[in-house]
């Protein structure tokens, strides 16, 4: 995953977290409506250019939509985490949502323990309270009303049921973290195995193959090549005999277009071989090249090793 993708997912995760926090904030809209009636807040709004009636209308509208913000925020966090880490990211969902709830609780009532109430409301609104019951004394509208009054009832004083619910939530988050760490470790181990295999395969390619000898395939191809070379050399001697005293025949060999040759023994249709002007050194170079060609193809056959698919690039043959 590239750095641009990581930055995009981080921004998306922050935006989703802000949406969830907006849902928590909107639950307290009635408390803020009461604050707007205080002279100090009214003067502050007028100083910033806001009308009291407009702010009340906005708070009422957003307050009635808090469930939408909660669901959209939680869903967006889940999608973003899944996009970044797949199933491992989904396991982090309860942890991340709890962190958002804890941060919001510190901001609103200066006590992170109130997070258990926000998380409980979220579970109810997402129809997950039966799947992850935290065991609070209140539920439904009673729980929602209690959370809505939190800023007004500050400081937060958790009941015994709240403390037990917070402990259950802590155990759940710890389990999620342990599972995530195990999956992360397993994933890293899977990544290391191919690297180790690749390294061992690379080292294996560089080792000398003990007892390597030409096999049946090479022996047959080499015999065929010696027979073909003998035919070529006999043809060259015949052409050399015919061209003695006739320089035009030697010139015909030089004029042959090799890209259009179909028969090396009769390149121009008049019995002129492409090797008509070959000298001793030409036959040596041709033999070297073709024999190296045979060796390079015979090597993986005779080595019989899946790591050795060809001659290593840094060998003397290449």
Automatic annotation (TrEMBL):
Transmembrane segments: 66-83, 90-109, 165-183
Swiss-Prot/TrEMBL keywords: Membrane, Signal, Transmembrane, Transmembrane helix
Signal peptide residue numbers: 1-21
Protein name as annotated: Uncharacterized protein
Organism of derivation: Cladocopium goreaui
């Amino acid at each position: 995953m590239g750095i641009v993708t990581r930055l995009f997912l981080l921004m998306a995760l922050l935006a989703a977290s802000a949406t969830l926090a907006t849902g928590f904030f909107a639950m307290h809209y009635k408390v803020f409506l009461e604050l707007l009636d205080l002279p100090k807040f009214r003067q502050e709004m007028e100083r910033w250019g806001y009308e009291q009636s407009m702010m009340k209308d906005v708070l009422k509208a957003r307050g009635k939509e808090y469930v939408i913000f909660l669901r959209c925020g939680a869903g967006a966090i889940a999608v973003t985490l899944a996009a970044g880490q797949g199933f491992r990211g989904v396991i982090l969902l309860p942890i991340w949502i709890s962190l958002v709830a804890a941060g919001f609780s510190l901001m609103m009532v200066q006590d992170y323990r109130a997070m258990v109430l926000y998380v409980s409301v979220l579970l109810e609104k997402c129809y997950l309270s039966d799947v992850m019951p935290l065991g609070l004394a209140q539920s439904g509208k009673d729980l929602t009303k209690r959370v809505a009054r939190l800023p007004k009832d500050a400081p937060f004083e958790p009941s015994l049921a709240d403390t037990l619910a917070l402990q259950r939530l802590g155990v759940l988050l710890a389990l999620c973290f342990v599972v995530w760490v195990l999956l992360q470790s397993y994933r890293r181990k899977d990544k290391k195995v191919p690297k180790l295999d690749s390294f061992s395969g690379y080292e294996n390619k560089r080792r000398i193959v003990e007892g390597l000898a030409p096999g049946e395939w090479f022996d047959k191809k080499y015999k065929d090549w010696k027979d073909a070379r003998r035919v070529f050399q006999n043809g060259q001697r015949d052409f050399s005999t015919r061209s003695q005293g006739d320089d035009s025949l030697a010139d015909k060999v030089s004029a042959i277009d090799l890209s259009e040759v179909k028969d090396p023994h009769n390149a121009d249709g008049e019995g002129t071989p492409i090797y008509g002007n070959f000298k001793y050194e030409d036959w040596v170079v041709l033999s070297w090249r073709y024999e190296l060609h045979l060796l390079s193809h015979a090597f993986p056959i005779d080595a019989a090793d899946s790591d050795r698919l060809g001659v290593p690039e840094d060998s003397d043959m290449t």
